[in-house]
Amino acid sequence: MADLLRALIYAWALPNTLLGLLLGALSFQRYRRIDGVMVFDGHVKGFLAILRRFRRSAITFGHVVLSNRPMDGRLQAHELHHVWQYERLGPLYIPIYLLVWVFTGYRRHPFELAAKHAEGDAG
Fold it and tell me: 101, 69, 5: which is closest to 79 by C-alpha?
């Protein structure tokens, strides 16, 4: 039963994961796995260079994390919390995130505040 539930969770987040895989391919590097998540956090090139240009360390799409620095510690806890959010909201995550962002901005965004709180749990 647990395997079926896990498969359904991955399927629910799959549209976002596919976007992450495309952007991961555009980072021109290999991925590694952390807790069932594909992580692209090697050399800063391709999409990761664009991410750095926007002054962001990492971004998550479904079960894919793209980071322009090694993902460990607080950053890992933060991004894995976003994975957890994607698992709950699936294809609704990005539209909801963007809609809330319009009204709250990045620093007061409830998804970001929850992920920030998760960092403290890890640190």
Answer: 69
